[in-house]
Write a structure and sequence with these properties.
1% strand; mainly alpha; 434 residues; 2 strands; Serine Threonine Protein Phosphatase 5, Tetratricopeptide repeat; 69% helix
């Protein structure tokens, strides 16, 4: 069934190589000539036709390419004596996909799979076709069949992820999640877990069912060592604790992450959110999904008393000062941004001082005002200021541009940054650059 040694799609590889070389070098007319020569010797070869279709598609001749592809497909279906290999199918799949006919590619793989139901290469090709068509149920079915044949962990994970996608993209599905969990438990009992991806998928499955305690037990047990980087393991542990409602323990874990990785801005936001018990990005709820990137949002009014709020922000400030003391170079921006965020939280709580927020922004400008990312870093903080304070901030930034002795490149970067902040503020004040 499969290609023999030295053959490509049933054709000697030395006859096919010039076509691929011409395609790779974008010499499509030359490639088409080679295809014509090849077809004169192998007129009934689906692979030769697939190559011609590929070249025609690259030349922009879509209709002709589609017609040739259909001829190759018909040859596969009608001549049982022909070899069917993954190389021929994958070439046809490329053409059909580029012509927006994924269903045709899928039907080719389904036909080949029906003839050779135990061939893993064909099954993986068919699985990929289902992935491209978002056929989650069929993905699951073919992945489980591959797992039964090869008993490989990756195929089981493909099946579990397909089940998770079914649940995410439709209402209900609790029984499906239980099925996926049962499959993983059975696999662990017979084969254990061997890859970090397997642990992460299992944890995400438990999270999807709000089984945060079970996920924590799994992560802190013998399988936790699969995630070899301590920081990654701690991040996951902190997330599970926060989503389970144990904010104090989560804050402690996130603090450890910051001590190990002081430039982790997202982790600091989680840490501060857990301290103030308002980390909505990690809390329980149907609309919260930890797979999406964290967005900095205006926090709701804290339910903490003023005393508790002040005490916890004081703890956060102490940690930030420690991180600043230990920072070895100016590439670590998170602690400086953290000071600004703490002042922002105070203002939102009604206990802050806008002048301190402006001063924190100016100090951040002293260090990082020349960077292209400065404006996007501070935009959320600038918006919280009233117009007078925004103008005051602009004036101070312009003064900094004139007073900081630096090299011409940094000076230019600082002036560009001030111009960006002017756009954010909406006050287009003429800025002279000397």
């Amino acid at each position: 069934m499969a290609s023999k040694l030295g053959l490509a799609g049933g054709i000697p590889e030395r006859r096919v190589r010039p076509i691929w070389d011409a395609i790779d070098s974008r010499q499509f007319k030359n490639a088409l000539k080679h295809c014509t020569t090849l077809l004169s010797k192998y007129p009934n070869s689906p692979y030769a036709l697939a190559l011609k279709a590929l070249v025609l598609e690259r030349m922009g001749k879509s209709e002709e390419a589609f017609s040739v592809s259909l001829n190759a497909k018909d040859l596969l279906y009608t001549n049982d004596s022909l070899l069917i290999d993954d190389l021929t199918l994958s070439t046809l799949q490329i053409v059909f996909q580029r012509l927006d006919h994924l269903d045709m590619a899928t039907s080719c793989y389904e036909y080949a799979y029906a003839k050779f139901p135990n061939n893993l290469d064909l099954m993986m090709g068919l699985f990929n076709c289902y992935v491209r068509q978002y056929s989650f149920v069929k993905q699951q079915q073919i992945a489980i069949k591959m797992y039964k044949i090869a008993a490989e962990e990756r195929f089981l994970l493909w099946a579990v992820c397909s089940i998770q996608l079914q649940v995410l993209c439709s209402n209900g599905g609790e029984k499906l999640l239980l099925l996926a969990e049962g499959l993983l438990k059975k696999h662990i009992a017979s084969h254990s877990l061997h890859e970090p991806e397997a642990l992460i998928v299992y944890v995400s499955l438990l999270e999807q069912q709000s089984k945060y305690g079970d996920a924590l037990k799994l992560l802190t047990g013998k399988f936790g060592s699969l995630i070899m980087t301590e920081v990654d393991r701690l991040r996951l542990q902190g997330r599970l604790l926060a989503r389970g409602g144990d904010y104090a323990a989560a804050a402690s874990i996130f603090q450890k992450v910051l001590e190990l990785s002081p430039d982790d801005w997202e982790c600091f936001l989680h840490y501060l959110g857990c301290l103030l018990e308002d980390d909505s990005s990690l809390c329980k709820g149907e609309n919260n999904d930890s797979t999406y990137p964290l967005k900095l949002m205006d926090s709701q009014v804290s339910h903490l008393t003023d005393e508790a709020f002040g005490s916890r922000l004081s703890n956060a400030s102490s940690l930030v000062q420690k991180l600043l003391t230990e920072a070895s170079n100016d590439t670590v921006r998170c602690p400086y941004l953290a000071n600004i965020e703490i002042e922002r939280r105070k203002l939102l709580h009604g206990k802050g001082d806008a002048d301190k927020l402006v001063e924190a922004l100016v100090q951040y400008f002293f260090r990082y005002g020349h960077l292209a990312c400065f404006a996007s870093d501070v935009e959320i903080f600038v918006h919280i200021l009233d117009l007078d304070k925004k103008i005051q901030l602009l004036d101070k930034l312009k003064e900094c541009c004139e007073s900081i002795p630096t090299n011409p490149r940094k000076t230019l970067g600082q002036h560009i940054t001030v111009f960006k902040i002017q756009n954010i503020v909406g006050s287009m004040v003429t800025l002279s650059i000397n």
